[in-house]
């Protein structure tokens, strides 16, 4: 089942912060975050495994709350280059090892 | 490394025609995935292979779709006959690890338009 992302879209000014949420109705094993720029392929940002870890990638970090079956992506002091569509992908704790993506959050950073 | 290579980049065809999309994964990657992206349905997993063997094809829409991986360096996704609703961007991705923990490396995609 597809994870649910929110918000669907967000517009920021350069330097502002943003949070993108991803939740699932299933018990999760892992959460993956990708960014896709218009007309390009998705590009990997990070993976979080069950255990409630938090990871960082420059000014982009994420948390994974296994109990709540949700993850959040934090973009701090956003740059113009952060614009794009952010997808979370999840695998559940069942036997099916299938990475299922959410519908995406379109992030626009304005100068 | 050249990355995941897909061809063709763009394909325009008429309803009823056969379409074959091709993918060369990154050398050494044991996992290969086919995803389809549309505005309505987002990124959908169609099928994935491990060591050239199909593991999960539950996302393949119907019998009109078939995928093969005859060797570690080549995979095809075939649609026969094609329909307008098959219009989408088809991405191939490869990974050195299983879907739980593996980073996916996507190709640039094949944009299919069925008239």
If you had to describe this structure to a student in words, what would you say it looks like?
The complex is a heterodimer of chains A (111) and B (115). Chain A has 111 residues and is mostly beta strands. In chain A, 0% of the residues lie in helices and 57% in strands. Chain A contains no helices and 11 strands. In chain A, the strands form 2 sheets. In chain A, strands 2, 4, 5, 9, 10 and 11 form a 6-stranded mixed beta sheet that branches. In chain A, strands 1-3-8-7-6 form a 5-stranded antiparallel beta sheet, with no helix packed on it. In chain A, a hairpin with a 7-residue loop joins β9 (84-92) and β10 (100-101). With 115 residues, chain B is mainly β. In chain B, the strands form 2 sheets. In chain B, strands 2, 4, 5, 6, 9, 10 and 11 form a 7-stranded mixed beta sheet that branches. A 4-stranded antiparallel beta sheet of chain B has the order 1-3-8-7, with no helix packed on it. In chain B, a hairpin with a 3-residue loop joins β4 (31-38) and β5 (42-50). Chain B is globular, with a radius of gyration of 13 Å. The interface between A and B is medium-sized, with 24 and 23 residues.
What share of the residues of chain A lie within helices?
A: under 10%
Provide the succession of SSEs of chain A: EEEEEEEEEEE
Treating each run of at least 4 consecutive H or I residues as one helix, how many helices of chain A? 0
Computed over alpha carbons, the radius of gyration of chain A is 13 Å
Low-confidence stretches of chain A: none
* Shape assignment of chain A: globular
Order of helices and strands of chain B: EEEEEEEEEEE
Secondary structural class of chain B: mainly beta
Tell me the fraction of residues in β-strands of chain B, as a range. over 45%
Oligomer: heterodimer
Radius of gyration of chain B: 13 Å
Mean pLDDT of chain A: 90
Uncertain residue ranges of chain B? none
Report the average pLDDT across residues of chain B: 95
How many helical stretches of chain B? 0
Strand percentage of chain A lies at over 45%
Structural class of chain A: mainly beta
Largest beta-sheet characterization of chain A? 6 strands, mixed
Distance between the termini of chain B: 36 Å
